[in-house]
Specification:
The chain is of the alpha/beta class. It has two domains: about 120 residues, Rossmann fold; about 160 residues, 3-Layer(aba) Sandwich (Rossmann fold), CATH 3.40.50.980. Helices cover about 30% and strands about 20% of the residues. α6 crosses α7.
Amino acid sequence: MNLASIIEQHPSNAPALISRGRTTDYGTLRDQVAHLRGGLLGLGIEPGDRVAILCANNWYFVVNYLAVLGVGAVAVPLNPLSPPKELERELVSVGARAMVVGAAGRDAARGLDPEQLPVLEFVIHGKGGEVEGSVALDDLLAAEPAPIVDRDGEDLAVLIFTSGTAGFPKAAMLSHGNLLANIDQVLKLRGDGTGDPADVAFGVLPMFHIFGLNVVLGATLAAGASVLLVERFDPVSAIEAIAKHEVNVLAGAPTMWAAWASMYSLDSESFASVKIASSGAAPLDTGVSRILKDRFGLEVGEGYGLTEASPVVTAAIGLPYRPGSVGAALDGVELRLVDLDGEDALVGDPGEIWVRGPNVFQGYWNDAEAT
């Protein structure tokens, strides 16, 4: 088992990624990732090593993410726009041995203090970002290809930082089994559980957040479909890209949907290609939801999730349209709403949500008390 294997069985000529105007098919993607695995092994990266990825949503992120997983290392996606001090804290907390830096993360990377990062051995840059002592991505891509390293379902795949609503963000430990389980659960919402290879998903949700990483990217690649990678959200250019590439799977955050709902000049056919529309990360205003339904015919389904659940717990996709509802529990997920005594809360009373399922994480990195 290895999460990186999700791209291995698809037709070589099928489109996988659309990034910066270029399309990468699955055959080319597999080849690039295999060579990069060889490059990482050449550096001495071993199973369990933590490799930070400081990139925007583009080809660079995806290839490095899959290669890191493929050698059995642990991917640590980080916000490329974070202040250097915050990045230092995160890199130190996970003990990152290597860091991949894309164009979006160069300024932040230059602001890091090497003396604060004694464990960090390798900094990998693409063209134009090389600095003294760094490793060139092109050199790693020129290495001999290496096979995917087999992992157990319980083996750690990703460390991803929570939103930090209760103190500093904590690194949630997600295994290969956790992430694959949620991918399977999400795909079951869309039919027979395999997904549609003809789908084109809109990949603007940041991949240093679990929704973008595993729902948008992971589930789409597992289905053999295409991801249109978008590095920054702009409501006007997004509409143009959706039409140009015939995007039919559109996952967004409430701010995105609100922006589109407020654009009264948009044509009623702006989302004509979209067959699945979903919103996550925060509640979607019911007024916005109804505007999208009335003006564009979009039935935006909400869900409930959290980083620690890889992330989806409930979803409204496939259920009757009901603004404000987060739908029903995914296959294999058990839910309880409990009171302060740990007893089931009464209908209408507040409570704490307890979640159990194969997608639920292993705990917080080096934080047994918080776990």
